[in-house]
Amino acid sequence: MTDPTNTGFNTRAVHAGQTPDPTTGSVIPPLYQTTTFAQDGIGKLRNGYEYGRGTNPTRDALQAQLAALEGGEFAFSFASGLAAEDALIRALLLPGDHIIMGNDVYGGTYRLINRVLSVWGISNAAVDMNDGDALRAAVAAGGPEGKTKMVWVETPSNPMMKITDITALAGVAHDAGALLVVDNTFASPYLQNPLALGADVVVHSTTKYIGGHSDASGGAIILSDAEAAEKIGFVQFAVGAVSAPMEAWLTTRGLKTLGVRMDRHSSNAQEIAEWLLTRPEVEKVLYPGLPGHPGHELAARQMRGFGGMISVQFKGGETAARKVAESTHVFTLAESLGGIESLMNYPSEMTHASVKGTELAVPENLIRLSVGIEDVADLIADLEQAIGSL
Ligand SMILES: *Cc1c(COP(=O)(O)O)cnc(C)c1O
Prior knowledge:
This protein has about 400 residues and is an alpha/beta fold. It has two domains: about 10-255, Type I PLP-dependent aspartate aminotransferase-like (Major domain) (Aspartate Aminotransferase, domain 2, 3-Layer(aba) Sandwich), CATH 3.40.640.10; about 260-390, Aspartate Aminotransferase, domain 1 (Alpha-Beta Complex), CATH 3.90.1150.10. It has helices at about 10-15, 55-70, 80-90, 105-115, 130-140, 165-175, 190, 225-240, 245-255, 260-275, 295-300, 315-325, 375-390; strands at about 75-80, 100, 125, 150-155, 180-185, 200-205, 220-225, 280-285, 310-315, 330-335, 345, 365-370. The strands form two sheets. It has a seven-stranded mixed sheet, sandwiched between helices. Helix 6 (about 165-175) links the parallel strand 4 and strand 5 (about 180-185). Helix 3 (about 80-90) crosses helix 4. It is globular and about 75 Å long. About 50% of the residues are buried. The chain binds pyridoxal-5'-phosphate. Pyridoxal-5'-phosphate binds next to helix 3 and helix 4. Its cofactor is pyridoxal 5'-phosphate. It comes from Arthrobacter livingstonensis.
């Protein structure tokens, strides 16, 4: 199969960018663990490959796969999600420009924009993306120079699981002459394709669901605008925060099974969320698959499933949340998410420690579950004994 463009998601996941090696017929494209490429004469490159920071066939294969799965023309892969975000902003914005971001974006994204990029003259404001009036006012105000150039959203958001209407938000951003960037890490391209809903750029931490096995860090930018893509490609090459060949190869391998993994993550999470609702110790279950979730209907419209992430708030406050987080045996207490194994996180002190005390602070009675693909009965039994210890 050479052109899987018009095929279903899982066929594209398995075949896009995965042409068998022309030299040996190796069904799996080889891992090109190299930094440089022999030239047949000065400047006479074989298939355009010259130097690893610029291009590498293993990275190209991953980028083709990512573009095919997000429905974009161009994809760029980086050493981490934050490296991708940094490259995106520095490629497309200039000092004096302004970014509006959701007030519950990933803590590291907030830190990058608010503490690193602000020093270089890119201002920002954080708003509730579901508060239309506040959003329009912030976009119109556009920071000190009145130049809103980018609107940045996560949906579902991390860890509050808020759902934002991507198409409506694209309208607000475009009216102001700004780009809409969607961090699609939580949904993954299997459950949601922001470009098809009107977004201009998709970013991913491929460290999470796309890689899916907690063994390779990475980030990606996917988009269809050729002019913007050229600028991003230049920054990727000139700054060099590229994904290493081994990481790209592992990410490609993980991405092939994204569909089957997401189906299991989603069905396990749905069952666990419904079970948590029945527990008297639980104050609130934040999961878009629950009919009581404020974003349920919107999520059902713009996503193809509800994903594997659940946040839970406990009546017993911080003490109860900490106790549960430290009492599980199948769920591992660790940062990160999206791997095949179930992880438990206490955001206030772990993933979101960088926003403690800011307007983005996470409630202290909240734990976040990244529901893995284990047998759901074992996961529920584990949570039952942990919650039972309260
Ligand atoms: C983890 C994460 C990031 C950052 O990605 P890294 O690979 O850790 O740099 C960005 N956005 C979201 C939603 C994340 O979960």
